[in-house]
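User: Quick sanity check before I run a bigger batch. Here is a single chain. Can you write out its predicted 3D structure?
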Amino acid sequence: MKIVDEKDRDYRFGDSGPKYLMKGPRSNFAVVRFNPGQDFPAHYHEVMEENFYILEGKIDIYVDKAKYTLSKGQFIHIEPGEVHYVKNAYDEPIVMVSTLAPYQEVDKVEVPDAY
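Assistant: Done. Predicted structure follows.
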């Protein structure tokens, strides 16, 4: 059993990026915030599947070059091997939940110039 209070954790980049509430042993769980204009490099996972659930705002998520615009209350599941890229092209911050499973300490393969 584990209890974590989000206020006790920090976003990776100060006011944005992932804020991991749990990393392993079987899955990752994070609250993710992107400010307007922010993105992260296109990548895929060899083993882990990734899910995003939108809590606030609107976000563009590209999966294998197809663009999906998601907003509050929407969910997307990304399979291992699917190249994905996330960009906040909007005027408001985005807040979403991210889960990754099964846990792997290293399982991110960046794809330069994919988007």
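The radius of gyration is 14 Å.

User: Great, the batch can go ahead then.
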